[in-house]
Amino acid sequence: MRNRLAEVLSKLLDGLAKENSLEQVELKLLKKKKYDKTVVATAYSWIYDKINANQHGSKTHQSISRGMRIFSEDEMHVIGMKNYNRLLKLYNIGLLIDSDLDGIMEQIFFFPEFPLSEDEMNFLILNSIIDVDKLSIPGSRKLLYLSDKIN
What we know:
Elements: H1 2-17, H2 22-32, H3 37-60, H4 73-79, H5 81-92, H6 98-108, H7 118-130
């Protein structure tokens, strides 16, 4: 299941980077019938929770002036132009914030070859999405599905 979940998350990220809405990407995944509905719903929920946490965090810190992180030419060379554009698109929809971009840039230097492939960049982005669980207590998801069990 974990492998499937990472694969679905990766497909959702690819769709978002191609400027499709989450709903469009989800429908495409469900139409293929390659993925289980609960896995797609879980992946969708994680992305939605991450965007929601980012938006909620920006509302609580409105007194701090918000700027945008700008990559240097060296950083753009390391990540590659395609991955740079992908990061900007995900930043614009609210999936990534400045601290996520900083974390991704810190982790990039653990990779031996530059520029990074799309799969390697997906791995780093997925790491920042899954990291959102550290910010919330277990079971605090805003969406419940029929497959969820409540004790």
